[in-house]
């Protein structure tokens, strides 16, 4: 399902093996992060507690974006859910390392890997 | 005198513009290509902080950034005239610690999940992790964050940017 698009950030989501995959493309910063936040809130409110956020097409991520992802993680955990990330880009992984958040999020190389990891933990 | 000065209305939409300008000037000033992502992220963080401070305290005042290349360093100064208190950069791993438990003094922020992120501590920690040299100055007028990276000097005319 393709959602609202803009020059800066494109969001869409779909289900795969019972897990909701959020596809993010573009820049996540102080201006665009609220849209991702609203999507994550909407998904949780609609009963989707197992999420994978695919960030392979994210070109920029700042601390505002990190805050949104942490907020999403907290929301799903309140329902015994999970929020995993897919990211192999070093320039994006760097901010996770600087902030220590590599120890908080499961970060995987592909969506299939993230799904398989989540299934194996059930 | 700054090589380039930019002022912008304190709106989140303009932070990206500041990032693009700063990165372009950094490239022209001879900052290594491998450092440009760091420049982009650091100036974005500083500008985001400034925008938040201005929106809170002085929404009619513009945020100012000064980009200067001299003596082998490329320096960015982001000045906000808001009354944001200077904060000590959060130590590495603070983000991890904060997710481990509830902040009983701020349940609303915890419930939202974002109260402690994207604000003073974490953004300064990110900046400190990216720039060689970070200086935070607190004055009566507001807060100035200055960051710098090594540069090889202005790219020569006709050379690839």
Short descriptors:
heterodimer; A: 122 residues; alpha/beta; Transcription Regulator spoIIAA; six-stranded mixed sheet; 40% helix; 34% strand; globular; B: 161 residues; alpha+beta; Heat Shock Protein 90; five-stranded antiparallel sheet; 5 strands
Summarize the structure.
The complex is a heterodimer of chains A (122) and B (161). Chain A is 40% helix and 34% strand. Chain A has four helices and six strands; from the N terminus they run E-E-E-H-E-H-E-H-E-H.
Describe the structure.
The complex is a heterodimer of chains A (122) and B (161). Chain A has 122 residues and is α/β, with parallel strands linked by helices. Chain A has helices spanning 33-45, 63-77, 90-99, 111-121; strands at 2-5, 9-16, 19-28, 50-61, 82-86, 107-108. Chain A has one domain: STAS domain (Transcription Regulator spoIIAA). Chain A is built from 4 helices and 6 strands, in the order βββαβαβαβα. In chain A, strands 1-2-3-4-5-6 form a 6-stranded mixed β-sheet. In chain A, helix 3 links the parallel strand 5 (82-86) and strand 6. The relative contact order of chain A is 0.16. Chain B is α+β, with helices and mostly antiparallel strands. A 5-stranded antiparallel β-sheet of chain B has the order 1-2-3-5-4, with helices on one face. In chain B, helix 2 packs antiparallel against helix 5 (120-130). Classes of the chains: A alpha/beta (122), B alpha+beta (161). The interface between A and B is medium-sized, with 30 and 34 residues.
Sheet with most strands: strand arrangement of chain B: 1-2-3-5-4
Shape, principal axes of CA atoms of chain B: globular
Element-by-element helix/strand order of chain B: EHHEEHHHEE
* Secondary-structure content class of chain B: alpha+beta
The main sheet of chain A comes to: 6 strands, mixed
CATH level 1 name of chain B: Alpha Beta
Please report the distance between the alpha carbons of the first and last residues of chain B. 22 Å
Q: Superfamily at the CATH H level of chain A?
A: STAS domain
Q: Write down how many β-strands of chain B occur, each being a DSSP E stretch of 2 or more residues.
A: 5
Q: Write down the overall geometry of chain A.
A: globular
Our Rg estimate of chain B from Cα atoms comes to 17 Å
CATH architecture of chain A: 2-Layer Sandwich
Strand fraction of chain B equals: 15-25%
Task: Provide the spatial order of strands within the biggest beta sheet of chain A.
Answer: 1-2-3-4-5-6
* Distinct helical segment count of chain A: 4
Instruction: Please report the two chains with the greatest interface, counting residues with C-beta closer than 8 angstroms to the partner's C-beta.
Output: A-B, 30 and 34 residues
Order of helices and strands of chain A: EEEHEHEHEH
Supply Rg of chain A: 13 Å
